[in-house]
Specification:
heterodimer, A: about 525 residues, alpha/beta, six-stranded mixed sheet, 17 helices, about 35% helix, B: about 120 residues, mainly beta, two-stranded antiparallel sheet, 1 helix, binds zinc ion, Ubiquitin-related modifier 1 (chain B)
């Protein structure tokens, strides 16, 4: 284990004496009759009492978020104002998610009361019409890493057990696929932007090219170029998570979903929380717990529908998930290990939390409960173009203040301002047009966490190959180009052209026009 | 069935079977009495001194599975003398935490289920 890995567990044992796993009795604490089958946070349950306990936690976490507004009724009829989309990975949590949602909301079972007993008689309203339709979305990541197999069809078979769920498979490289982007209703953009990540003299992310045509580089090539430009294993694993999240969100939007449900268990939630905070994501801690997403777009006046992202298993530990799956015959095909995730902060956090949960099961729920109390001090300044989460105000000014750099300050200062667009007040350029005629920077549109992910090169040396243009995901370009049309009318243009020429030279081979 | 051995049904789940030749269920026959340190005797070794024997328990079974059946990445299965955190162990469909964990003395025809919970959401 590396020096910043798990604390040595024998040392941990010495500091915190191991507690008894359960109280004095081996009998179920709920029915007080049957012998117990499982210990959950020091309490013993029998099999018959255990499963209703899990579905009760599930409904308590989900149901307050179903109706668009709380209304005045104490027990409002559950009715969502859109469709349902469930994110499915084949893993334990999302396999449970599908099964429990199907059981409670899409089969003809009765509405249950707080004790999981059917409410009313045969004619009592059913839960079956809470959402008009349900889609299951899987994001296949195999093309991002060598040696992974494609699980798309295997998971299709799992989902086909639930005839009322529609299965939609997307692929991680769709993040760079303009045809996918148009299919999910994204705003067309005439350029796919690239960014200069490898520039060792600056933390700034200058947009240097808008000139890749899809024919030149396949979405998979773009994805691999993007991932290989990232400075750390942690950054790669974070980028994959972000892409899966955004691909799922746009899929949800294209299906008219009002709710996106994730199979995040209490254990995996605690891992994400600690991992995210340790990567500079503290500002969006609340979004790790519960989040409402509206498609971001600078300057867009169109009102996009809001999607609620809910984690109904957020109070259920992985151990409970595993026992529930076994005792309810739920197929869990399992998620493949993603090579990049076996190293890095997320994986170390996982080892730590899972180890902690084994001996101190209550501590893990304390992490989630504590994080639920956190709130950012300031209102957000729009959302990050890359991860589309709320962005802290004046993040760049703050980052400049805390950063120590030995050179590149002048260049950075000039790059931080977006120069004027010569096409100002004109309609967007037609498809045949050349590159955006300016230097744009992505930096002011990124949250602290994404900017750090792209630029922190603590664990590797400077690239000897120099700067190469790195393609950006399809959802970044339209709002970024949009922003360029409205800002900074009085910038000195001469300096822009001075900056731009060397960049053009560096990427000349990719340019359509000379 | 000789009283010198125990035959157990061992089942893997949650992706753990991938470490065991992707076989989910197998019957495992182990000696009823095993070395006190849970070391797995090799067929060639001399018979062990009776004083160092104990009744076969779950800790021995884990060592036995690791020695005889594990095909990949032992560090994902065991840590020190027990299963890696994140693996749920059921003995006859009951959480092994209620049965004394590794100290549970195995009986003939016991069913042991090992499920990995680490394969995320
Ligand atoms: Zn009970
Ligand atoms: Zn971001």
């Amino acid at each position: 284990m590396s020096s910043c890995g798990n604390p040595d567990s024998s040392e941990a044992d010495a500091l915190m004496p191991r507690r008894l796993k359960y109280g004095r009795s081996r009998d179920c604490v709920r029915c007080r009759e049957k012998p117990g089958n499982i210990v959950i946070r020091h309490a013993v349950y029998c099999r018959d009492c255990f499963s209703p306990l899990v579905t009760l936690k599930f409904r308590k976490a989900l149901q307050p978020s179903i109706n668009a507004s709380a209304g005045t009724s104490k027990r409002p009829r559950l009715k969502a104002d859109g469709n349902l989309l469930m994110a499915f990975s084949g893993g334990l949590g999302s396999s449970l998610l599908l099964d429990i949602v199907h059981r409670i909301y899409f089969s003809n079972e009765s509405v249950l009361n707080e004790n999981e007993e059917p409410v009313g008689g045969k004619n009592h309203p059913r839960n079956a019409d809470v959402w008009p339709s349900a889609t299951v979305c899987y994001v296949e990541v195999c093309n991002a890493f060598p040696g992974m197999r494609d699980s798309t069809e295997e998971l299709r078979t799992v989902v086909s057990q639930y005839p009322c769920f529609e299965y939609v498979a997307t692929r991680i490289e769709d993040a760079f696929d303009r045809s996918w982007w148009l299919r999910v209703g994204g705003l067309p953009s005439f350029s796919q932007l690239s960014v200069d990540i490898g520039n060792p003299t600056s933390c700034d992310l200058s947009i240097i090219s808008a000139l890749f045509t899809p024919a030149e580089r396949s979405p998979t090539d773009c994805l691999l170029a993007y991932l290989s430009s990232l400075p750390t294993q942690t950054a790669i694993s974070t980028a994959i998570q972000t892409f899966i999240r955004i691909l799922t969100l746009y899929t949800a939007r294209s299906r008219g979903a009002s709710h996106l449900l994730l199979g995040t268990s209490l254990t995996s939630l605690s891992i994400s929380l600690i991992s995210s905070i340790s990567q500079g994501g503290g500002y969006t801690t609340r979004e790790e717990l519960q989040e409402e997403w509206t498609q971001s777009g600078i300057g867009s006046t169109e009102i996009a529908p809001t999607i609620r992202i809910v984690r109904p298993l957020r109070d259920v530990t992985m151990k409970e998930c595993a026992a529930y799956a076994r005792w309810n015959n739920i197929t869990v095909v399992g998620k493949q290990r993603v090579p990049a995730t076996t190293q890095g902060i997320h994986s170390l956090t996982k080892d730590f939390i899972v180890g902690l949960e084994k001996d101190y099961p209550s501590t893990v729920s304390t992490i989630a409960r504590t994080c639920a109390k956190l709130a950012p001090k300031d209102a957000p300044k729009g959302s990050c173009l890359l991860c589309q989460r709320p962005m802290q105000h004046d993040i760049q000014e703050w980052k400049n203040r805390i950063s120590i750099r030995s050179f590149g300050e002048a260049k950075l200062a000039s790059d931080l301002h977006t120069p004027p667009n010569p096409h100002n007040n004109m309609p967007p350029p037609p498809l045949s047009s050349q590159s955006i005629d300016q230097t744009l920077s992505l930096t002011p549109h990124l949250c602290y966490s994404c900017h750090t992910t792209l630029t922190s090169r603590s664990s590797r040396g400077l690239k000897s190959t120099g700067s190469l243009p790195v393609p950006l995901p399809v959802w970044v370009s339209p709002p970024l180009l949009d922003s360029a049309r409205v800002v900074n009318p009085d910038e000195d243009r001469g300096e822009v052209f001075q900056n731009r020429q060397p960049m053009r030279d560096a990427i000349a081979e990719y340019l359509l026009e000379s | 069935m000789s009283s010198d051995t125990l035959t157990l049904k061992v089942e893997f789940g949650g992706g753990l079977e991938l470490l065991f030749s992707n076989k989910r269920i197998r019957d495992v026959t182990i000696p009823a009495f095993v070395p006190g340190d849970s070391s797995v005797p090799s067929p060639e070794s001399e018979s062990i001194q009776p004083t160092s024997l104990k009744q076969a328990d779950v800790t021995f079974l884990l060592h036995y599975l690791r020695e005889k059946h594990l095909t990949d990445r032992p560090e994902l299965f065991m840590e020190k003398d027990t299963v890696r955190p994140g693996i749920l162990v059921l003995i006859n469909d009951t959480d092994w935490e209620l049965e004394g964990e590794g100290d549970y003395v195995l009986k003939d025809k016991d069913e042991i289920v090992l499920i990995s919970t680490l394969h995320g959401g």
